[in-house]
């Protein structure tokens, strides 16, 4: 069977997007594992499925590189938002995800001409059972040191609704990734704390409205960026008075986004604003569970995005030197 795919990214978090217009009985887990293999066409961090929905403009499913399914994906949702809005010729849409129907919207570019979308990030829970994360008698974890994780990094746990463990760190933990690598690999292996794994982010405060976030993603490993992690990090940084104001700029190894963090009557309202870049259009042959790339048309959009990367690198250099 011939399958049409779009390669997309949000902050360098890269996905193949496939729109299934009918029940095609394809093995999406097998497809994701092959498409994400870095030795084939550069790989990707996941497969985004755009499916018909009875209650929204479309439904998104997210398959991680290892074949596990995630309940949400912020960077991926921006790319799905663009796909659906352009197809339906609308500027705002509702996308059904595993646990919520979320509003997505076309926005003014965050940098030069970059196609930019905002996506709602919800529901939010601090209950450890929502991740789940098991820590003796604790119900929640807020900016606290856990000896088994680190002697000096305070961690917060939150689900949005995919699970995140977020540490506020000093520069040495950003310059050298080994602590994050070891902790995240442990929490994503067979372990007593996070039986379903967890996305682990290290956050470096930069200014009163800027942070840097690097994430080791469950089901993938280190990625250029994780949208839900950056939004959750902006929330935690706000709650801990590390940043102030409603719009936080979040730099990451693949670019930058803006996260809107607002509070109404004790309830947090989060959204993620950033690029939704189309890298290329691909045709594959998928038969006997094997993928073969047949054709591709690469767009000019990455050239434009590279300029944004140069801007981000220069900006980051000014913080880190
Ligand atoms: N990159 C994503 C999150 C993808 C899912 C994650 N790996 C998980 O398993 O929770 C994002 O942009 O939010």
UniProtKB/TrEMBL annotation:
Substrate binds at residues 13, 64, 74-75, 162, 199, 217-218, 227-228. It is found in: Cytoplasm. It catalyses: (2S,6S)-2,6-diaminopimelate = meso-2,6-diaminopimelate. The keyword Kinase does not apply. The record marks 164, 217 as: Could be important to modulate the pK values of the two catalytic cysteine residues. Keywords: Amino-acid biosynthesis, Cytoplasm, Isomerase, Lysine biosynthesis. Pathway: Amino-acid biosynthesis; L-lysine biosynthesis via DAP pathway; DL-2,6-diaminopimelate from LL-2,6-diaminopimelate: step 1/1. Pfam families: DAP_epimerase. The keyword Cytoplasm applies. PROSITE patterns: DAP_EPIMERASE. GO terms for molecular function: diaminopimelate epimerase activity. SUPFAM superfamilies: Diaminopimelate epimerase-like. Its EC number is 5.1.1.7. The active site is at residues 73, 226. It comes from the Bacteria. Belongs to the diaminopimelate epimerase family. Catalyzes the stereoinversion of LL-2,6-diaminopimelate (L,L-DAP) to meso-diaminopimelate (meso-DAP), a precursor of L-lysine and an essential component of the bacterial peptidoglycan. Homodimer. This is Diaminopimelate epimerase. It comes from Solibacillus faecavium.
